[in-house]
């Protein structure tokens, strides 16, 4: 079975930190924050096998870029497959304006 190296950009790591801080500090739910962080991290780690299972996004220019959107609870993990690598570019709250937020990267 083919395995991919999963790489997480600094921006995606910052997104995950923001999610953790929002839940822990703003919502005052540090246990929930850690649980959510871990669920997202596990889903990202799981992309090392068969990342093609998630289809390409339908919107442009994301589709042309080869961007895929994996939903984890209320969050979306955005990634591309390049050769033997899975590159996670963003992790965003799914109810936010995704197109606008993706263009910020």
Task: Write up this protein.
The protein is α+β, with helices and mostly antiparallel strands and 105 residues long. It has a single domain, classed as YaeB-like fold (2-Layer Sandwich). Helix content is 41%, strand content 25%. Strands 1-4-3-2 form a four-stranded mixed sheet. Helix 1 packs antiparallel against helix 2. The longest helix has 17 residues. The termini are far apart. The mean pLDDT is 92.
Features:
105 residues, alpha+beta, YaeB-like fold, 4-stranded mixed beta sheet, 4 helices
Question: What's the helix and strand layout?
Answer:
Blueprint: E1 5-8, H1 10-26, H2 30-45, H3 62-65, E2 68-72, E3 75-82, E4 85-93, H4 98-103
Parallel strand pairs: 1-4
Antiparallel strand pairs: 2-3, 3-4
Helix pairs in contact: 1-2
